[in-house]
Amino acid sequence: MRQTRALPNGWWGMAVFMASEAALFGSLIGTYFYLEFTGRQWPLGGIAAPSVTAPLLLTATLVASSVPMALASAAARRGRTGATWLLVFAAFVVQSGYLAAQIVEYTSDLDKFQPDTNAYGSIYFTLLGAHHIHVAVGLLLDLWLLARLLSGLTDYRVKAVRAIALYWYVVTAIAVFVVATQVSPS
Amino acid sequence: MAVIGTGAERIERLGRIWEERPGVLGWITTTDHKRIGLLYLFTTLVLFAAGGVEALLLRTQLIKANNGLLSPEAYNELFTLHGVTMVFFFVIPISIGAFGNYLLPLMIGARDMAFPRMNALSFWIFLASGIFMYTSLAIGDAPDAGWFNYVPLSAARFSPGPNIDFYCLGLIFNGIASTLTAVNFIVTMFKGRAPGMSMNRMPLFCFAFLAVSLALVFALPPLNVALILLELDRQVGTHFYDVAGGGDPLLWQHLFWIFGHPEVYIIILPAFGIATSIIPTFTHRRMVAFPLVALAEILVALIGFGVWAHHMFATGLPAAETVYFSAVSLIIVVPSAIQLFAWLTTLLTGTPDFQTPLLFIVGFIVFFIIGGLSGVMFAAVPFDQQVTDTYFVVAHFHFVIFGAAVFPLLGGLYYWFPKVTGRMYSEPVGKLSFWLSFAGTAITFFPMHIVGLLGMPRRVYTYPHGLGWDATNLIETLGSYLLAVGLLMVAANLAVSRFRGKRVGRDPFDGATLEWEASSPPKPYNFPVIPTVSSPYPMWDRRDRKKDERKLERGEMVLDAGHETPATTVVDAELDEILEMPSDSPWPPLLALTLALVFVFLLTGHWVTAVVFAGASAAVLGAWHWKEPEEA
């Protein structure tokens, strides 16, 4: 692989784009606390405060998936196709499990209250839903990467691994803030 | 790297490598930043004409008391669409999409943007969102709750029709294009600068566009959140803005203005950038206080994020909040004033040659001072509460976003016209068009201060006799006709000169920045030799340019082995790698089409179909990235 001093354009593009995604979640989390501080009680309307253990464990899983992602990025830069593929796949498995468990949690919450119950329900499901969509998009990026890596590494694909790894780091960092907001009433 | 052959052979080879498909298909699949810039220019000018006709209809309705030209409903739709068009579909896309796209790569000595296909995607999404928004007018359901669309008026209960859905979805769609463009600009300026153009040697025009792009990246998400939450309230029944369900209508105002005030600087900063290009050229001297002006441009964008609630002083915010926002609104005057005094000092200490482009910049300075002074007044809370929602506010922001933002755009159209067409505009007609536009602007908008202080509220479709408003309104309307004549004269001058103008060389004005090094019109590859830069005024460093010319024969920095452009390091702009760039591609317009269908089906409430087209968009993206530039 060619050695360069500056980070590649693709990495920078992803970094700036993810800054905008972080601002999106900043606005959603801001909305959450705005509604909390203008409401008389929180959660509104006698909805039980969310459980803490399951969301925190799930977030820890997602954070852990950054390790294979970082190793995949390093392996790709050293030109090791097989190791890159396996590490991305490992991250993909953990991330899919995370999303599946999150969806189970989400639907079980929907049995207790809904987005149209009150403003708490509205922001609760919107904030978590926005996060899940970002995880789902990340899984699609993983799949695309896994398919491309089957025919080996190129300069372009090394950059793609680094950019997609960055996507996951930011989504994971955002997940920490989202879950902290989610469990804040407890 | 090919080092064989003479300079002429290298130029011929570059021409062959960078040539795109001929004809209409070539324009649809283009990834050339100059062609995309021109596509943006013509689209935004059409939309400017639409917004202008809407304004003339509004002014004609107000020409006399109790006029019956427009119904109240039609008036609501027209003033809303006028605002939405001018802000989202004219000023921002023409300055960023047209001027930025065409000029930025040229000014930094690059051959294209960092992401050429994403650049094409931005344009096609922008075009589709414009068509989407104007479909609402064609079917008679245009947005009608004002360009800032306050709830509860825009909630489902009071606006049950599709009008507001067009607004929300159309602006989210439009925002995708702006975000992509901003990302592209930032990376292009970070990584695409010619060797030697370290950050401190980047032209001030580029600093202004860097500031705008950074502001867009952080300002659009709050708007998107505001719009998504409103759409959820309207279509899913959530309660974000609904007091009965524990929500708060003021939440909309906060989210909207967290975007909306940076937006004002997003509109005005490109104008600052154009001013800092035109003033040095026509005063024959370098800008005064270059580093201060560069920092001020970035600071304005930054502080712009801390002033939003001065749009909300009349909503009963706590005193502690109003005091803070009042103070910050005063502070932001400082970086604006730094730039103003730098322009004035450059003019006064240079030898100004008042040709048409510089005249428009002088007009800009005058209007910016008037609009800026009335703007500072709003920082005083009691005064703001007195004039909120009167024509005084309308006068203020038209001086700023028409007088101060659009005049440099008009000056810029004249200034870079010879670069784009290879021909010169008519100077006497240009001067006349300036004076007509200048007088038209002043006569239209200045009396609005007076009628506003007399108590005339904005957004009323008519008014009764005997309030002392008749004469001022008549003058304003006549002024708007004069302004229209001035603008038509600008258009006519440029249209006729395109075919009849005197042919000019590559640098008719002795400009300072690298776009004047390229031929007029520039070749698809911009520069035969990638320039090496040693100051922010590279065209005035004659020896550097001579050195570049000699490199052509030696084959250095010609990069004619493929579709290539250099990438440099972020701060020092040292040559880092040679990138193989993607060439023309059918995927960007196709992706814009599938995305447009997503928004159409969201509008009509066909959720499943919308998700299907979202999946199709993902598939198109996958296919787009299947073929890698190295193998293209």
Keywords:
heterodimer; A: 186 residues; mainly alpha; Four Helix Bundle (Hemerythrin (Met), subunit A); 6 helices; 78% helix; B: 632 residues; two-stranded antiparallel sheet; 2% strand; globular
Structure description:
The complex is a heterodimer of chains A (186) and B (632). By secondary structure, chain A is mostly helical. Chain A is 78% helix and 0% strand. Chain A has helices spanning 9-38, 53-64, 66-77, 81-112, 119-149, 155-183. In chain A, helix 2 (53-64) runs antiparallel to helix 4 (81-112). The longest helix of chain A has 32 residues, at 81-112. Chain A is elongated, with a radius of gyration of 19 Å. With 632 residues, chain B is an all-alpha fold. Chain B has helices at residues 7-18, 23-29, 33-61, 72-107, 116-138, 163-191, 204-235, 249-283, 290-303, 319-331, 333-349, 356-378, 381-387, 391-421, 427-453, 470-500, 542-554, 587-603, 607-624; strands at 564-568, 575-580. A two-stranded antiparallel sheet of chain B has the order 1-2. Chain B is globular. The model of chain B has no long low-confidence stretch (mean pLDDT 95). At the A-B interface, helix 1, helix 5 and helix 6 of A face helix 6, helix 7, helix 8 and strand 2 of B.
| Radius of gyration of CA atoms of chain A, rounded to a whole number | 19 Å
Shape type of chain A: elongated
Name given to the CATH architecture of chain A: Up-down Bundle
Please give the radius of gyration of chain B in angstroms: 25 Å
C-alpha termini separation of chain B = 17 Å
User: Helical element count of chain A?
Assistant: 6
Uncertain stretches of chain A: none
What's the total count of β strands of chain A?
0
Mean pLDDT of chain A: 95
The biggest chain-chain interface is:
A-B, 43 and 52 residues
Structural classification of chain B: mainly alpha
| Helical percentage of chain A | over 70%
Question: Could you say which structural class the secondary elements and strand pairing of chain A correspond to?
Answer: mainly alpha
Q: What percent of residues of chain B adopt helix (DSSP H or I)?
A: 55-70%
